[in-house]
TrEMBL record:
It is found in: Cell membrane. Residues 21-249 form the MacB-like periplasmic core domain. Its main location: membrane. This is ABC transporter permease. Belongs to the ABC-4 integral membrane protein family. Keywords: Cell membrane, Membrane, Transmembrane, Transmembrane helix. It comes from the Bacteria. Residues 291-412 form the ABC3 transporter permease C-terminal domain. It is a multi-pass membrane protein.
Length: 420
């Protein structure tokens, strides 16, 4: 079947009219090209969006207090309440499957009054009282020094880790920051490290203008007592935080005498749920890419099938002679199918190569740019996509040649020999 004579015949048949063959092959080339480019573009968008999370622990929920909207057990609606440090302990003890429960307090912020002073320089920055686990929930690169540890928590040390944006605003270029002091709302804190946030979620510039201090020293310095502003709660791998959220909220309602049906009293944001929505969006985008690419490819396959019908018609006399000399129907059918598959695969591979070159050029352009704040990064397709594309090509080639091949074996030798 794969003899040299047979392949010479296939090449001769396809090259007898080069222009027609090239124009027919272009339909398949363009279909595969569109399919691969659409999938690569979708992957680039997915990479960019996920890069925006910056490695944030996506199996996380955030929880804060809001106004109670329903009276309950003699307490009026409209009252305010606060989380306490005991609530953190209760959640850890009574809700299994949690990895981190991080209480947090906060003051200041962008757009507020200047709350941080160093020498003659001042600035308005978010200041967070945190536990060491927060760096695993909200990853950041420590550019100098270190982050908060449990010795800082235990000893209530007045130490601070500042963002690179804070460093730029309060220090001269090249000035040593470790061991220096900044004054937060009138209280001195020694700088022990600096960080740079990962990702581009939210406001990337303001993400570098934050200050982290130990939760205990924050509470002591700013008279917060045992109050907790809000919490970041991360579930263990394999256990969606969404499945535990109801139990956590029920526990807080019980501890703070809140009506079980008061859904607005405990504010929360389920990052895992939102992240799953984004994943669902990209699955839909991939489905659309396959749908559009296969439709374009189908139009090219129809073109090849039509051309093969014309080729069979032009070679009716040849087919009659071969049948008269004893060629079997399978031999005739195999010849037509091989020509169709060969043309389809060659044009399809050309489309894959062209798409690969385009993707490589785009990645070369992106490699020289800072993509940390872009919603598009590293467009690519994996080997699985190439295998799927090759499978589509082979099946398409068979389908494109099937009808012409069947028409070819239906030709009676006597009728074929009479054809002019």
């Amino acid at each position: 079947m794969f003899s040299r004579d047979r392949w010479s015949e296939i090449i001769e048949a396809l090259s007898s009219n080069w222009f027609r063959t090239v124009m027919t092959a272009f339909g398949v080339l363009w279909g595969i090209f569109i399919l691969v480019i659409l999938l690569a573009a979708g992957k680039g968008l997915e990479n960019g969006v996920k890069q925006g999370f910056g490695g944030v622990a996506t199996n996380t929920m955030f929880m804060w207090t809001q106004t109670v909207s329903k009276p309950y057990k003699g307490l009026p609606k409209g009252r305010r309440y606060n989380f306490k440090t005991d609530d953190v302990i209760a959640i850890k003890d009574q809700v299994p499957g949690l990895r981190f429960v991080s209480p947090r307090n906060q003051l200041g912020g962008f757009g507020g009054a200047n709350n941080v002073v160093r020498g003659l320089k001042t600035g308005a920055f978010n200041v967070y009282g945190d536990y060491p686990e927060v760096i695993q929930q909200e990853p950041m690169d420590i550019t100098s020094g270190r982050f908060i540890n449990y010795s800082d928590i235990k000893d209530k040390r007045k130490v601070a880790i500042i963002g690179e944006g804070v460093r730029t605003a309060l220090y001269e270029k090249g000035e040593e920051i470790l061991g220096s002091y900044i004054k937060i709302n009138g209280v001195n804190f020694m700088v022990i490290g600096s960080y740079k946030k990962k990702g581009n979620n939210g406001n990337p510039e303001e993400a570098q203008k934050q200050i982290f201090v130990p939760f205990t020293s924050f509470s002591q310095a700013f008279n917060r007592g045992d109050t907790v502003g809000w919490m970041a709660i991360t579930a263990q791998d394999g256990t969606p935080i969404t499945n535990l959220k109801g139990r956590i909220i029920d526990l807080m309602q019980e501890r703070h005498t809140i009506h079980p049906e008061d859904d607005s009293a405990v504010g929360n944001f389920d990052l895992f749920q939102e992240f799953n929505k984004i994943n669902g969006l990209f699955i839909a985008l991939r489905a659309v890419a396959y749908f559009v690419g296969i439709l374009v490819l189908l139009s090219g396959i129809i073109g090849i099938s039509n051309i093969m019908l014309i080729v069979v018609k032009e070679r009716t006399n040849e087919i009659g002679i071969r049948r008269a000399l004893g060629a079997s129907p399978w031999s005739i059918r195999g010849q037509i199918l091989m020509e169709s598959i060969f043309l389809t695969i060659i044009s399809g591979m050309a489309g894959i190569i062209l798409a690969t070159l385009v993707i490589a050029l785009i990645n070369m352009q992106l490699s020289g740019m800072d993509t940390s704040e872009m919603m598009f990064a590293n467009p690519s397709v994996n080997i699985g996509v190439v295998i799927v594309a090759l499978t589509i090509l082979i099946i398409s080639g068979l389908l494109a040649g099937l009808i012409p091949a069947q028409n070819a074996i239906k030709v009676k030798p006597v009728d074929a020999l009479r054809t002019e």
